[in-house]
Amino acid sequence: MLYSGLIVDNTYQIIEEIGSGGMGVVYLAFHIRLEKYVVMKKIKNSNANIAMLRNEVDILKGLHHPYLPQVYDFIQYEGYLYTIIDYIDGYDLKCYIESGQVFSEGQLIKWLRQLCNVLGYLHNHTPQVLHTDIKPANIIITGSGDICLIDFGISLSGSDRIKGVSREYASPEQCYNVQCISSGCYEECVDLDERVDIYSIAATFYHIMTGIMPDVYVQQPKIAQCNTGYSEAFVAIIDKCMETDRDNRYRNAVQIEKALDNMYKMDAGYKKYIWVQLIASLLAGVMIVSGAIMTIKGFRSKLTEEYESQFNSFLQTHRTGNTVDTIQQGYRLLNETRYASVMDENTRALILHTVADGYYNSEDFYNAAYYYKQAVEHSNDPQNIQLYYRDYIFSLVKNNQVDKAREVLAEFMSRYPDSQISVLVEAQIYYKNKEYSAALNKIQGVLPYLSDDTDSLYSAYLISGDCYHDTKNYAQAMECYSNANKIQESEETLRKLGNAILVYANTVNKVSLYTDAQNVFESLCTYYTPGVDDIFNYAQCYLLCKGEANYKKCITILEEYIAVYGEDCRVYIMLSIASDALNDGKTRNYCTKARTLYNSISAEEKKRIDAESMNQIKDLYKKHCGGLW
After folding, report:
1. 385 Rama sector, left if φ>0, alpha if ψ -120 to 50, beta otherwise
2. Please, what is the average pLDDT of the chain?
3. For the chain, which residues make up each domain, given as ranges?
4. What is the spatial distance between Cα 238 and Cα 208, in angstroms, rounded to a whole number?
């Protein structure tokens, strides 16, 4: 067993043991030369064929994909074998399932697309790589909200028969191979292909969507029978991926992506429309021409009226900042096939762009990029298409696809060489690469030309604010975010402005600034969809403003937070501070709960707690609980 502080192979310093699974013990370590955290996985089978393992690890080391951890090395230490892999900070889907988390269809579609993307890469790699153990515990959701597919300890090529399975998520053919090997009937084993991973993804999504643990040996209800609330089209895709007979599944990940692109064609409303059209075409043969024309005109007039009402409602929802409803209404408009005849391509592009805005404001940059790209492809309006291009590139940069962003920028500049928007895009890329001075210089050069283009001016202020914020020039950041918010108040501008004011107020310790931050976060929490940190910061503003009424309001906000989001160490630390200030007799309980939660969280989570709060809670714990923290 490796211990904390031990340096292995003159390269890896052991931090702590972080898990133990089917393939062995897992350690968090620090790569001394690269100065980054890595994972060391001890392979359980000490009698493994070293040459075969080294060959497999060499294959995995050659894999480079944004949704895969990088495999660095394969070492032997004191008779044991270890693989060295990137440390991925985040929580696996198993944690979310066990906590009862419910995900939106848009979120699941995003992750399914990402999984298809990485499976396409693996399955088309030479030699082919099958994961063979896809399950919730092996899909990490990173801090950026993207997936990372981990645990290639049992990866294999299609010619290998079996190395291990997770019964709940393994395909029937994998389980069949296990039975054959267990009974000594090796010759009856079947060769595995891409469809084993497709089944395992579907089983994972089945568990997420229904809450029911899948089991290949037990007859279980279809997703449609579980009243999950997901669309018929999306459910049908998952069901097809999970077919027992692999010949009935999608053949590869590309086919799944195409099915997602054409979901509306699987929708019941679309099928009904096709049936209605068939009947109408049969009736047309016996209809009097003039009567038919009148009927069609009347129908089209009514349809246009209905469509315009839905479209205006959609725009109104977008203006309120309700991103969830904006996305859902936009999706319904786009997939309502009856509207196809009354919706022109530029209007379709506008809806796609607005849906993408909803994803962007929710920081779901993967789906934002997808819909912005669709907006670009559908628009033929010279003015709007430039804005669509700009936002498409912005979302690519935010999604860490800088190379792709540069590729699209080159395409844009070849079409619009004189556009000032390209300068903003270049500034965004400079910002992403932490070249803050270059980004600010770009924006300063273009600001005089943007006075009549409020949309681009809004983006310029946001990028400038981000540059100033990251360089700790919070006063300038506040000014930029405030200017952006005056042009267009949104969830994004309020969040950035509130955070900048709060940080600056902590720097200068000015009470009036805490009140300003409080007002900003109040607007965000009242009129938009706040995140966990937004609510936390909102409560903190009341705490820092001081006074009995403010302390009580702080406690009310935090108790509502716990009821919705569950227990959080930072929340109980703040509750302890507010309760002590009020002298309401609850401080001891809050302190005890804070200490219990603190001892249960990871080292990374502990780093999120600022030093001042830690000093306060330690003093309060000693004062009210009579002991050391």
Report:
1. alpha
2. 85
3. 7-86, 90-266, 567-629
4. 11
